[in-house]
Structure formats: C-alpha cells, structure tokens
Design a protein that fits this description.
The structure is a single chain. This protein is of the alpha/beta class. It is about 45% helix and about 15% strand. It is built from eight helices and seven strands. It has a seven-stranded parallel beta sheet with strand order 3-2-1-4-5-6-7, with helices on both faces. The chain is globular. The two termini are about 30 Å apart. It comes from Erythrobacter fulvus. This is SDR family NAD(P)-dependent oxidoreductase.
Length: about 250
Amino acid sequence: MNLDLNGKVALVTGASRGIGLAIAKGLAAEGARLCIAARGRDALEKAAAQIEAAGGEVLAVACDVADDASVGRLVDAALEHFGRIDILISNASALSVGGERQDWDRSLSVDLMGAVRLVEAVLPSMREQGSGSILLISSVSGVEASPMNDFGYTSAKAALNAYAKKLAIVEGANGIRANALLPGSVEFPGGGWEVMRSENPPIYEMVRSSIPFGRLGRPEEIADAAVWLVSARAGWVTGAALSVDGGQGKGIR
C-alpha cells in the first residue's frame, strides 16, 4: 500500500530511542523528511545517524518539551529547514509513574502540556497550508486503570485522548486531523520494561501474563500503526484513540 508520505515533513519528539525512534525510521522508510527531537543531544545524534545511514533525510534538534522557548526553537528550526510541517507526532514522555506530587508535575508538564506546546506551535503553519496530521502518543493506561500508583501518568494520558478528540473537532475545518495512539506495554533495550524484568520480575510477569500473546510489544509494532495513522491512507480517521496493545486492554468501547 502506498502511504503517500514521500516528501512529507514530519516532526517527531521523543525520537532518540524506543517507540519514537521506530516511528521516525518507519516514516523515513516511506520517504518522509524528518525533524527529530529529544532532550539528550548525544542519543539524538546517534538516532539521526541511523536514519541517515538508511537513506533518510533528517534534522536533529535537541528540545525540552516542558519549556515553551525550547519548543518554539524546535518548530522554528523545522520550518526554516523544510519550509513546512505536515505531520506532528508528540511522543515525549517523562515516564514518571510513581505516586508522588512530583510525578504529577512531571507527567502533566511533559506528557500533556508538552503536547499542547507543540500543537500550539505548529497549528499556525498547518492552518495556513490547509492541511496537517497530528498524532499524540498516549497509552493504554489512559483508558485502563491498573492497580499501580501512576496517578499522574494515567491522568495525563487520559487527557491526551480528550485533547486529540477536541483538536479533531475544532481543526477539521482547517484540513487538520488529530488522533491519539495508545500503545500497550512495549519492551526494548534500555527501556523501562527491560529494567522492570530484571528488577521487579513479579510486576513484569503480571503484565506479560495479561497479554493474550504472552509477550510485550515491540516498538516497530507501534510504529507501523503510527505511520499508517498519519498517512493519507487514514485520511478519514480523526478524533480516534487507537489502541495497539496486543489485547492488553480488556475494555469494550
């Protein structure tokens, strides 16, 4: 299937590893031009080198989505370099899953308001060009209540789902689509679930056994859905909250 992404400009945050990097690679494989962002410059440059080695065009810009000025510089750099932004994928997360007030603060500032800052920064150019696709990477935690103390993380992800729906309704007349993607638990080298497997096996096994396939997901499995969702082939999909979780979520919606 031709996803009609060749030459499109995509801005992806949280793109130095895991799901974000897999999404960036998937978009590059479809011919999209990329601006990738993350806080850590070294890891970001390594990610950019991987994309370039595979033939992709990429601009790497270090950014802290919890800071308005940093987000402004990121979007300005992408627009100056490419002249437009067709796709925004907000994937940065504090992954602050504790139950303390600081976890609330981090989750709301990065996961939720980071997305708001990015969207507000790209909307003027998308409105002017009369098109755009916005994808907010949420979580199955935004629709499924687990017996963990991740109150702030869960609440931030649930808010992202609502934000995507509102954006879809308000910005549809401007030719802009907005959706949320809800990954289940995903394991990759250096990621939180790999750490959990060695440091807290009971929790890891509880989650693994809750998934019908008997394993956690892979970043590439999330990326495949994301790349389709921002493409023209999903042109009639907006305001959706798409779960990609291997059946981890048990709710009927």
